Amino acid sequence: MQKRKDQRTGTQTTDLGYSRRVSLTLEVLFRGKWRVHILCALRVGPVRLGQLARFIPGASKKMLTHNLRRLEADGIVVRRDLSETVLHVEYDLDDQIRESLFTLLENLANWGDSYLARSIQAESEEGP
Question: Of 115, 97, 110, 102, which Cα lies nearest the Cα of 40?
Answer without folding.
Answer: 102
